[in-house]
Amino acid sequence: MASQEDYPTKIKRLRKEKDEFFRTDEKSPMPDKNNFFGLKYFDVNENYKLKATIEYLEKKESITIKTTKEESKKYQKLGFASFAINNKIHKILLLKVPNLPQLFIAFTDLSSNKTTYGGGRYIDLPYKEGQKEIELDFNMAYNPYCVYNEKYVCPIPPKENKLNVLIEAGEKLY
Length: 174
Hints:
This protein is 10% helix and 30% strand. It is mainly beta.
């Protein structure tokens, strides 16, 4: 039963489901599903499943994020999530998705352009107004669809989310 899965088993199941979606679904970003043999991931590492404290911005302002196709997308700057990796505090900008109850994080780290996509990876997080903490799970970091298919338009991580830390978790370069 899914409810009794341990954490690594849950992540592996979600990855297997994503591979199946990419291989079979009509909404898959894969242009050639017949030659798709699965995504590549770092091993599940619970050290990258972090509690982060939300530091809200006093003034909720919008931000225009550039994309891979010279377009732009608007988000609301909600605040920053503070978290620790290797006993060092890092901050990442949390973006509120318009009309959706979730947060969007687009980031790069020291693995970018090496073992992960150079244009950055994403994490989507459920969000309830006013919450003080979030679970920031880098094992759930994923590549944008433009990695697999050039018809997709993908937001480029804002400068605030260029992390000076190696995050060997989540999806690797395809």
